[in-house]
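Archive transcription. Copying these from loose printouts into the bound notebook so they stop getting lost. Printout 1 of 2:
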Amino acid sequence: MKTRFPVLLLPLIITSLATPALAETVVEGPVQAEVIRVVDGDTILVSAKPWPQQSIEVFVRLRGIDTPELKSRCETGRQAAEAARDALESMIADTSEIKLTHISADKYFGRIVADVALEDGTNPAAKLLAAGLGARYSGHGRKFDLCRDE
């Protein structure tokens, strides 16, 4: 007599395998970090200090904003990207440490997404948005593209 046991378990196995991909792990923080460099208008490289006497270099995407890409296909996009990068560099220049909160994995391996706060509590993503140097971005959907109409 054949058993139907494996067939009955198949949906359960498939569901359990898919669950980790659907669940997002979030580290609330705060995690102290030193900025190593500004990559572009919405990404920085930091030396994060998640535990005493431990540090890790990681790329951090600022949560909630998308700025034009430095390698945009049009001059307008490249100029806007440089303006966003320069503004972020200016904000970060006067701070020695930042705080990362609500930290989660990014869609690109090796990069995280986080809320970033400067020493004075300023959120650089919010300042960039207020200055018109980027667009709100949830991590899904179309990205900010100034070259779309050119």
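Printout 2 of 2:
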Amino acid sequence: MKTAGDRIFALALGAAALGLAGAPLRAEPAVTLKPLAAASIDAGPKHMVGYFIGSGGACRLTLMIADAASLEQATPATATTRLVAPIDSGKSAQIDTAVGQTLRFACASDGQAMTVTAIDRNRRVVD
């Protein structure tokens, strides 16, 4: 029997796969998400699909991370990772990718929006 969380994730994943609610993120401009809106993120050899739930003024981020599809290699992804990260309101969590990008997931002060920003670590200037 599926729980409500499983059903919500399946809906978000399906919508992202069909491109109905996905917000692709490939460059440095930020993308703002609403609760339960799916996001599709390309990170080099990996692809992420995720969403967040706003509750109690905080954000609960859920990401599914898998090998990116390739036209040269028609085999399905063999390993998928699910990441769940609680993020306090006004705070952020960062995920470093293997291709020199950092993905910053920032929870709004009311927990009703999340901003996702891709930062090129190779272009970062240290003061």
